[in-house]
Amino acid sequence: MAITLTSDDAKDWIYKGEGGANLVLGYCGSSPFLVGKVLRVHKVLRSEVQSVIERKRLFSECEQLVWGDIPQLVKSTSKEIAEQVFAVQVMSPLLDSKHIDGGVPIFVTKEFLESVEKNVHTQRPPWRLHATEVDLLSHSALLMSDHSVFSSGSLKDDVCVAVEIKPKCGFLPSSKFIAKQNAVKKSVTRFRMHQLLKFHQGEISQPSEYNPLDLLSGSREQINQAIAALFSTPYNNFRIFLNGSLIFGNLDGSDSSKNTVYSANQSGEIGASIEDQIKVLIQGEFGFRLATFIELVSEAIFRSGVLDRLLAVQKLDVFDIEGTIHVYYNLISEPCMVCKNLGDSESVQKYYWLHTLSFEESLKIVRDFLIAATAKDCSLMISFRPQQKSDSSQDFIHLESSKQTFDYKAYFIDLDMKPLDKMVHYYKLDQSIVSFYTQCGIQVNNDAVAESL
Ligand SMILES: O=P(O)(O)O[C@@H]1[C@@H](OP(=O)(O)O)[C@H](OP(=O)(O)O)[C@H](O)[C@H](OP(=O)(O)O)[C@H]1OP(=O)(O)O
Ligand SMILES: Nc1ncnc2c1ncn2[C@@H]1O[C@H](COP(=O)(O)OP(=O)(O)OP(=O)(O)O)[C@@H](O)[C@H]1O
Ligand SMILES: [Zn+2]
Asked: Which segment of the chain is annotated as a signal peptide (predicted)?
């Protein structure tokens, strides 16, 4: 960690976005080392702000066993170092290092974090602001390339349009450990069912039209359909940036009708606005550019095969949470809370087998589940620019429809390790999602369709 950011540097960092766990800042100063970079700063739940003394250990004893074969990971002295090591040593070999940017942890002072938090206060979405704050006890943050621009730094005249996609889980589980009453999980995506629950809870004004199975299908036509659906209901699954600035979607990722950038339902207006803004990248008549852009994004996903790899990693979740939760209890050496509440002897027998697995087998299953969980929650950023040299070493796409060639780069972001102590949460959330769907989901589904007519 060569540099330290202090309170004098805070003015050069502006709000770029945030998720549940991190605040991301863009650099607007003139240091050549930092131009084209973003800083990913940890947040904590306001309800869980801890003192230095209470601070939880980075890895519990059990987690040290799960990740024990990656010594650098379990020996990490900060969350940022752990994130970098996890992205580079665990996710990168699975997803291809060409699509991974582990970033560099750098030191930040408490005064820097306090100033930045104050400066970005008004730009933060109210519901994020209410729930989380910058972790002032962090001594470091992760410096990464800004993947919403094509080349970091020098090439000021570069034109770049980038998309950010959060694909979520792109397969239907088929584990025999899925309980009979939850069999619907094998035919309806978790994303769809979760959308209906979110709709019921008032978090979104309509269920998303996007289907992860299409995006991760490997079929050009279905990928195209998925991207078109993301335009209708982007939520936190889709954003577009022009030269690093958001031009479509929401920074806070929630329902666009509640938090303005563009309203998802005014597709005519959005279409016009986007058509206008992407003309720097896509040539052609007004009215045709958006379709060409959708074709470009779909083609990049299809040809790069980047999501095929992501899907394979997601599928490391072989047993589904309904099987893995039992194995988790083997690891923490506690009585299984799920078996305790099982009624019929047939199920008891079915899950008994999972409790006979060895410690090493259990470690592997839980570890694969956690890796898959990261792959189900990460995002992909793809940046495009008009091709500058035909002998460019960059990946490129030629579109016959617009007779243009584009360079592109694809990077995964948010490849953080999921904590082991989230397993019970995963189980409970899964059960809430599926039981809501089986009890009232179909009704909600019909109501949502009726409302949108
Ligand atoms: O459980 P899910 O599928 O709702 O995923 C959570 C995401 O919700 P969403 O994609 O909006 O449905 C959620 O995203 P939002 O905060 O809703 O934007 C987070 O990504 C969360 O991960 P973490 O707790 O920040 O590490 C995600 O939690 P994980 O399940 O990936 O741990
Ligand atoms: N390297 C990057 N380049 C450009 N923008 C980025 C980069 N990393 C993150 N962002 C922006 O910041 C937002 C939040 O980042 P990130 O997804 O890492 O946060 P998070 O809190 O870990 O998310 P989650 O809620 O999924 O856990 C992203 O949605 C993206 O718009
Ligand atoms: Zn059990």
From this structure: none
